[in-house]
Inverse folding.
């Protein structure tokens, strides 16, 4: 197992390097320039666009040959220097250090919430199949899957922020991250981000549980005189949860790259989603490459973690 | 006993009298006293408006200068009538009679954070050693250069004494003074440490956290979390606050929002103090008891540029044809229906709010009586074009006998632009011209349609590579939004002069070139003469119609009702340091 993990980690580094190189080259070969966004401002000041472009590119070394830029970047990266973000005027490392926690807390809470509630309701719906509880869970899951998270976010703000006044209409970074006030103000964003995943987990858990509930080993367990709680908890759930792990881990990757960003935008949470969005529009190459690199490592890590978790959940699985 | 009672009564009356007088005096004094200092003023903005740097000399965006401006005053600014309001200046800039030497005298009570005085030396050092240097690549060098002997040279700053310095030019440029008013200095004692090293200067802590600003601005830097908020705290030492204790907010916060919908929800909920309001929401906010909405003019305007280069429809190289097209597009409808009344028809690059605007010289195309489709058709016929009937409709034929079909390129993502595009399509269809609207992303618009080069030439694509240059893809019209400088509109030469760096639509006119030159020469020194020149320039450009000036937009600003001291107008923020909560 250890050699498998080491091997996977080595592959991860190679894959990440490849993706980083491709991103670096594509960004610079693309048709955009950091100056594009200033054109109107430059024009309003009656300035010559070309001279401003040359000034900006010279200042940040973007006028140098691509290969020179690449090796300079790689050299800096190997020394732990992620570069300078010219669209935010700070080092990329500082930029990420000051924003990652906002994405992390949101994704963490939304994932925990979706798993606990989704799996819990899914189990309940399966155990109470064809009852009102099951029907209600089904309706809830259909609605949850259908509602776009950003729309739900806006509605939550209008209802609970504007009309009822229970919550602030935006996320306020004045509160310490682990304070109760902060957890409270994350309720609406977590709801908006997790609703789709929650509904999905509910459906998957229910159907997976139902599959297992009718298998022979469950009948055997019941015949042995085990309590229903033990049958469900020890036998059914353990078998039902295996495909769910894949789905949850897959979801986590897509949340990191997409879902959380929209929620951050709606609620004004200054997480890495917002950082990368603004960096892309500003052609802030160093930030885009860094965020891509972090995202790549996260997905690779999630995949590796999924494989490792499998071995614990199902002892038959081995990586030799 | 009676005596004691009398004495007691007298004492009571005296006491009462003293109390009343004291109370009256207290009331009188408190009535005259400075407003109370309290609360946080929270300004909402959307993420696109986030500043890039507090190290202002590196900034290319407008927001960065705005952020720095909270902590560092410029030499002067303007009120809503464009009257000069002195800030760091002790008196207005003196210009020598020949228009070549500018004498600038700053206040003697300006301090850096270490307590040292801000001197003329700091200003001259900032100009000579930073803004004019080769190593720092200041973005707006052009402001400080003049053409002498066929080349560009910098103006010459020189220290006169501790608070006075001069700027000497070799050529007269009457509008140069507006550039001077905007100058802000770096502290020489810090900047010298980084001189010559662009990386060190860019990353200098003092310049990125504004820790040097002393008493130079109403607020001091407190915190900046990118894409979230910019927090400033009240500057107790602010040089303009000596008399009345301004500013009157404990904190001034700029809060970024991902969407304008949420920002306006925050204003409605009272979570922020101020934000812009979109036209469609103005009526709703005006009904709210807790909100004041001010509608103010802006510097923003919309244009439809006609491609007069070789890869545009040949008719667009004829000014009568351009006039006919502009005549068919109803600006009143655009102002009222698309901007819901928050815009006014535009006829020139000079807005009506500018002191240089002359209403009687411009050709008011697109507004009655010059909004006339029948007349537009007659003008096209007079220009040598014929019409044919197709499905009962008039169709304009090109010189090649084929129906004229124009391509209008614009960017997606704005309801206003989409509505305008469709309205233009509808209006031109009424004079027999089919318009295809193509929405492309901003970088694509710039690269494929705006940048150009001479076919076959070994040129780098630019926005104006001369009269023979063409863009990579053909186009006929484009719909864009621009800002203009109401005080120095000659900056618009970048669009309309033959050598203008953003003259991507290929408008070349000697008369216009000469007028721009005259305005920026000693002939423009006299304001009356300059005004006449601007009037003539606006007339020629409106007649030539290289672009259809569509509308000047008005902005709507929503404030919580308890904010006092606001003077609505085009420069309504000029006195923001006096704003206060009731």
């Amino acid at each position: 197992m250890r050699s498998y993990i080491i091997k996977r980690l080595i592959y991860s580094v190679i894959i990440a390097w490849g993706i980083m190189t491709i991103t670096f080259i594509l960004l610079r070969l693309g048709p955009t320039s950091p100056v594009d966004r200033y054109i109107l401002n430059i024009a309003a000041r009656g300035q010559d666009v070309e001279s401003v472009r040359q000034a900006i590119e010279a200042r940040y070394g973007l006028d140098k040959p691509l290969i020179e830029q690449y090796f300079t970047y790689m050299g800096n990266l190997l020394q732990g220097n992620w570069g300078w973000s010219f669209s935010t005027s700070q080092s990329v490392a500082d930029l990420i250090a000051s924003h990652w926690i906002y994405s992390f807390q949101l994704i963490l809470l939304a994932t925990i919430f979706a798993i606990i509630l989704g799996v819990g309701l899914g189990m309940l719906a399966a155990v109470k199949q064809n009852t009102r509880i099951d029907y209600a869970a089904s309706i809830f899951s259909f609605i949850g899957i259908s509602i776009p998270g950003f729309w739900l976010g806006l509605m939550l703000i209008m209802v609970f922020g504007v009309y009822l006044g229970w919550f602030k209409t935006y996320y306020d970074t004045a509160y310490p991250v682990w304070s109760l006030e902060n957890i409270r103000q994350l309720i609406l964003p977590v709801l908006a981000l997790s609703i789709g995943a929650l509904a999905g987990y509910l459906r998957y858990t229910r159907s997976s549980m139902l599959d297992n509930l009718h298998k022979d080993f469950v009948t055997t367990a019941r015949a042995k005189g085990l309590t229903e709680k033990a049958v469900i908890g020890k036998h059914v759930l353990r078998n039902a949860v295996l495909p769910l792990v894949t789905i949850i881990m897959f979801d986590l990757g897509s949340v990191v790259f997409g879902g959380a960003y929209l929620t951050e935008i709606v609620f004004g949470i200054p997480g890495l989603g917002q950082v990368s969005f603004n960096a892309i529009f500003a052609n802030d190459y160093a930030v885009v490459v860094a965020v891509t690199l972090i995202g790549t490592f996260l997905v690779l890590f999630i995949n590796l973690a999924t494989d490792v978790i499998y071995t614990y959940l199902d002892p038959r699985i081995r990586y030799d | 006993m009676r005596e004691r009672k009398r004495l007691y009564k007298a004492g009571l009356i005296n006491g009462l009298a003293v109390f009343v007088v004291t109370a009256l005096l207290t009331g009188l004094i408190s009535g005259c006293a400075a407003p109370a200092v309290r609360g946080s003023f929270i300004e909402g903005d959307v993420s696109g408006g986030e500043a890039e740097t507090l190290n202002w000399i590196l900034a290319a965006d407008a927001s960065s200068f705005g952020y720095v401006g909270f902590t560092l005053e410029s030499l002067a600014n303007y009120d809503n009538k464009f009257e000069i309001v002195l800030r760091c200046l002790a008196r207005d800039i003196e210009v020598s009679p020949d228009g070549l030497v500018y004498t600038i005298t700053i206040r003697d009570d300006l301090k850096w954070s270490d307590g040292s005085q801000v001197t003329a030396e700091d200003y001259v050092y900032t100009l000579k050693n930073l803004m004019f240097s080769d190593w720092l690549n200041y973005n707006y060098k052009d402001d400080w250069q003049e053409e002498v002997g066929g080349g560009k040279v910098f103006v010459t700053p020189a220290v006169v004494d501790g608070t006075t310095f001069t700027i000497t030019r070799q050529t007269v440029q009457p509008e140069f003074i507006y550039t001077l008013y905007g100058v802000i200095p770096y502290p020489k004692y810090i900047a010298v440490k980084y001189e010559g090293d662009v990386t060190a200067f860019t990353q200098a802590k003092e310049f990125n956290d504004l820790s040097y600003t002393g008493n130079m601005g109403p607020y001091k830097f407190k915190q900046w979390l990118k894409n979230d908020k910019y927090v400033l705290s009240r500057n107790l030492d602010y040089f303009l606050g000596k008399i009345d204790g301004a500013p009157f907010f404990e904190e001034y916060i700029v809060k970024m929002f991902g969407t304008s919908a949420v920002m306006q929800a925050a204003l409605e909920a009272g979570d922020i103090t101020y934000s812009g309001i979109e036209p469609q929401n103005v009526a709703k906010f005006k009904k709210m008891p807790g909100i004041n909405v001010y509608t103010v003019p802006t510097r923003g305007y919309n244009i439809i540029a006609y491609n007069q280069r070789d890869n545009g429809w040949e008719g667009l190289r004829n000014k009568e044809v351009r006039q006919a097209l502009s005549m068919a597009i109803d600006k009143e409808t655009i102002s009222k229906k698309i901007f819901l009344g928050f815009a006014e028809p535009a006829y020139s690059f000079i807005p009506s709010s500018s002191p240089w605007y002359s209403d009687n010289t411009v050709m008011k195309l697109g507004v009655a009586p010059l909004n006339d489709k029948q007349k537009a058709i007659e003008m096209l016929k007079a220009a040598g074009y014929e019409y044919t009937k197709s499905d009962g409709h008039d169709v304009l034929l090109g010189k090649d006998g084929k129906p004229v079909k124009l391509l209008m390129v614009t960017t997606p993502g704005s309801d206003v632009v989409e509505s305008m595009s469709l309205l233009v399509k509808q209006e031109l269809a009424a004079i027999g011209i089919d318009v295809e609207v193509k929405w492309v992303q901003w970088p694509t618009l710039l690269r494929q349609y705006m940048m150009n080069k001479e076919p076959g030439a070994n040129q780098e694509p630019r926005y104006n590579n001369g009269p023979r240059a063409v863009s990579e893809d053909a186009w006929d019209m484009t719909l864009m939004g621009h800002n203009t400088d109401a005080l120095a509109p000659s900056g618009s030469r970048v669009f309309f002069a033959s050598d203008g760096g953003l003259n991507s639509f290929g408008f070349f006119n000697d008369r216009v070139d000469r007028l721009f030159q005259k305005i920026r020469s000693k002939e423009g020194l006299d304001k009356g003469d300059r005004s006449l020149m601007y009037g003539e320039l606006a007339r020629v450009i409106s007649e030539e119609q290289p672009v259809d000036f569509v509308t000047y937009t008005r902005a709507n600003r929503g404030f919580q009702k308890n904010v006092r001291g606001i003077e609505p107008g085009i420069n309504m923020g000029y006195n923001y340091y006096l704003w206060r909560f009731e």
About this structure: The mean pLDDT of chain B is 91.
